[in-house]
Write a structure and sequence with these properties.
alpha+beta, 5-stranded antiparallel sheet, 14 helices, 31% helix, 21% strand
Length: 395
């Protein structure tokens, strides 16, 4: 059935440009009254965006006692600035609730500001008195606050620096160093002979390497200006070395590349000082590896040999969680005694000191690394080394 409207007297202010959407919450009296529990409406469209209304019949955590809360949520992938208000009318069409917040900027779906809430929307008793056939009818009025000029999409080019650096990857013409990576490193000894000894060249630039890896930069040093330095690499597979150099130019390795080559990448980056890629590969290795009684000691010794604090923490957590199954079944004879500190840290994880302050010794590796990175300090090292750096900096 179609409905037509006839205005009697003067329409409300700003009538033109406003859109009205009625959202019906049927059986309102029977909806939950538990604080912070809510019901959601189906999505509706307005100004090319998808929206949803969230109703807290018993109020939000921030609501006054006895008040219901309502929030409007932008469900689209772009932001928008709108004016909006809510209106509730009773069965006689008398407006009993009018709520008009300030104009708000709604962020895109997934952002922290894609929803705005009226915590003290109206008293629940008033809403119960305004039900229409048992339904709470909330009229959502919306008007776009975006000006015509703002709707015109302007093209603003991004800073080209990252793209320019990436374009220099493997650029033979501008390179001042070439790494000759021996292909024998990816062959088994039985298939290696003098005739098959070939190398794969990787062209690079000192000024880029020196800010990512002091080790690689040191290998490239030359007193002869304008002469390309050739560096022989015999202990890393060409494809792994390519990953490492690609990363130094700002390249991003895929999850599969990291997962399938985690240990090789860790070993190469540990040797040549590409710290951040090493830690990224370590995180992927930890995520993709299930610690068991059979592999825990091998992983623990590997973590200790390469300063993989995150992997060591993961093993220690496993040991503490499964200590009753491990005692008497696993030998720790080859484990360095220095690891007892890591065991104690795993046991006391999350606890606080007597004075209420947080103890570095019980912090997660991720937290320690984040604190070091924010202070511009070295994030590669054992738990003890990281704690010592933080304490030194604090002092």
């Amino acid at each position: 059935m179609s409905t037509s409207k006839v205005d009697v007297s003067t329409p409300v202010k700003n009538f033109r440009g406003w859109t009205n959407t009625e959202v019906n919450f049927h059986g309102f009296a029977n909806l939950t009254t538990t604080r912070d529990e809510y019901v959601i409406s189906p999505e509706f469209s307005c100004f090319g965006h998808q929206w949803r209304l969230d109703l807290y019949p018993g109020g939000d955590t921030n609501s006054e006692e006895g008040y219901a809360a309502v929030g409007i949520v932008n469900r689209s992938n772009t932001s928008i600035k709108i004016q909006y208000c809510y209106s509730v009318r009773d069965a006689n069409c008398k407006e009993v609730v009018h709520y008009e917040p300030d104009t708000d900027e709604f962020g895109a779906l997934g952002s922290e500001d894609n929803a705005w809430f009226a915590f003290d929307f109206a008293k629940r008793t008033k809403l119960l008195d305004a039900l229409v056939d048992g339904a709470l009818v909330i009229e959502v009025r919306m008007k776009s606050s975006t000006t015509e000029d703002e709707t015109i999409t302007q093209f603003i080019p991004t800073n080209p620096l990252c793209k320019n650096v990436m374009n220099k990857f493997m650029d033979e013409e501008s390179a001042d160093v070439v790494f000759e990576v021996d292909n024998r490193s990816c062959q088994s000894e039985e298939h290696t002979n003098k005739k098959s000894r070939t190398t794969t060249p990787f062209y690079a630039h000192r000024f880029i390497l020196q800010d990512v890896s002091t080790m690689l930069a040191e290998l490239c040093k030359s007193d002869e200006g304008g002469v390309i330095t050739t560096v022989s690499i015999t202990d890393v597979k060409p494809e792994i070395f390519r990953h490492m150099i690609y990363y130094t130019y700002g390249g991003k390795l895929s999850e599969d590349e990291l997962k399938n080559n985690a240990k090789d990448i860790i070993n190469a980056c540990d040797k040549y000082g590409v710290v951040h890629l090493k830690l990224e590969a370590e995180a992927t290795y930890v995520k993709s590896t299930t610690i068991t009684i059979d592999n825990m000691i091998d992983n623990l010794l590997y973590a200790d040999s390469k300063n993989l604090a995150l992997l060591k923490e993961s093993v220690m957590d496993y040991i503490v969680a499964n200590r009753s199954s491990i005692i008497g079944k696993v030998s720790f004879d080859n484990v360095p005694s220095s690891m007892i500190t890591d065991v104690l840290a795993a046991v006391s994880r999350g606890q606080e000191t007597e004075d209420g302050s947080t103890d570095y010794n019980t912090m997660r590796v991720g937290t320690l690394r984040k604190m070091l990175d924010e202070k511009g300090l070295d994030v590669d090292g054992s738990r003890e080394a990281m704690i010592a750096l933080l304490k030194e900096e604090s002092a």
